[in-house]
Amino acid sequence: MAAGTWWGPVRLHPPTLALLIGLGLAAELLRRVESERRTSVSFISVILTAAIPLVGPVGAALVGALPALVQPRGTPAIARAFNMAQTGLIGLAGGCVYLGAGGAMVFGASSGVTDLLAGLLLPLLVATLVMMLLNAALIAGILRLSGGTSLRFAFLHTSRDGLVLYLGYGLVGFLFVVLWQVERLGPLSLLLVVAPLMLAQWSISGLVEERETQLRTVRTLVAAVETRGAQRRGQGERVGEVCEAIGEQLGLTPRMSEALQFAAALHNVGLIAPPERGEARHLTPDRARRIAEHPTRGVQMLQHIDFLEESRSAILHHHERWDGDGYPQGLAAERIPLLARIVAVADVYVALTWGRDRMPPEQALEIVDARAGTHLDPRCVAALRAAWDRGRIVDRPRPAGPDLPLDHDAPEVSDLMASGVPR
């Protein structure tokens, strides 16, 4: 087994390169057909991975870049150029890492198991890992430039979602190369790797369907809250946006970020049962008692929904106060779950900017700042301010509809509840 040089005409091997580019074009067309799926196995990624030991870094760059020419009509030229540069750079980087990790370029029928493991599989897995990280970094950069998303947040989300897939691409790419070069099957190798790819697609589709079922469940519950009162339409979504910005600033893990989004969407779900006969304009004892009970009612309603397990504590405790005068359990400071503290800050900010007496964001931020250390967690308040300063929280108009006569999320209501209104 000889590594050889990869930049010469022999190593590029034009017929092999042309076949791989053709397969890449076909795979890209297939991906366009399946573009409605949120997640799918990428045949082009498998072909790109296999191209690394078959045609070297330069060849892999071409295999990655040229199929990106197949774009939907109307795709802006800059987007087309970015896609080509991205996949080409990933192929080139993967090829260089493969060689740097000791990967070989020539295999034959005499290649032993040790040769294939040390000279092909392990370097290929290292290369796919680097390709995944580079892809995540590029996507995170685009999200940062286009929408202000935190680089760290976007990178962690993208790399988490891609890790298992890319390692799978490495394993299937290894099988592809063995069949192509060692067994001399050439393009027929693709037929033999389609079956495991289809199995992987089936598994991933199951996960995607489960995820979509979860989202449908959350949307149904949110719709129930908003149907109960048109005054709350869009409020959960807005709280979720602010929570996301605060969570990014605090460096939450992707798993915690997901739990936070569910909690933000459902934190007022306890308000749908039992229904109120009218919205009081003042905090009567009966109204105060029902407000104090809604976090517990909400958790009771959600207790059998497994995927909300990490969100339930935030829903239960989002009206606790930093000074310990909140409800339902009177927790204080760090004893309050972090996600609940984030929802509390977002809740107050949204109540001030969307409520009956809504005010400009700058004025609302001053009020939130003043409540740090008494009502709200100082660290979460500082994160809200930092996210605003970075442009991560964009002011937008509230949907048309009636105002809440009394918004239980308003800071003055929290103070009244803390002062001992009978419950």
Structural account:
There is one protein chain. This protein is an all-alpha fold and 423 residues long. The chain folds into 2 domains: 9-210, Arp2/3 complex 21 kDa subunit ARPC3; 229-418, Hypothetical protein af1432. 66% of the residues lie in helices and 0% in strands. It has helices spanning 9-12, 14-33, 43-65, 77-100, 113-147, 151-182, 189-228, 235-250, 254-266, 285-302, 309-317, 338-354, 361-370, 378-389, 411-418. α3 (43-65) packs across α6 (151-182) and α11 packs across α12 (338-354). The chain is elongated and about 80 Å long. It starts with 8 loop residues before the first helix and ends in a 5-residue tail after the last helix. Residues 1-10, 33-40 and 274-280 have low confidence and may be disordered. Residues 210-400 form the HD-GYP domain. The chain crosses the membrane at residues 12-30, 42-69, 89-109, 116-143, 163-182.
Short structural summary:
The protein has 2 domains: 9-210, Arp2/3 complex 21 kDa subunit ARPC3; 229-418, Hypothetical protein af1432.
What is the share of helical residues?
Answer: 55-70%
Decide which structural class fits the backbone: mainly alpha
Low-confidence stretches are 1-10, 33-40, 274-280
Q: What is the CATH-assigned architecture of the largest domain?
A: Orthogonal Bundle
What share of the residues does DSSP label as strand, in percent? under 5%
Domain HD-GYP: 210-400
Keywords: Membrane, Transmembrane, Transmembrane helix
Pfam family, one: HD_5
Transmembrane segments: 12-30, 42-69, 89-109, 116-143, 163-182
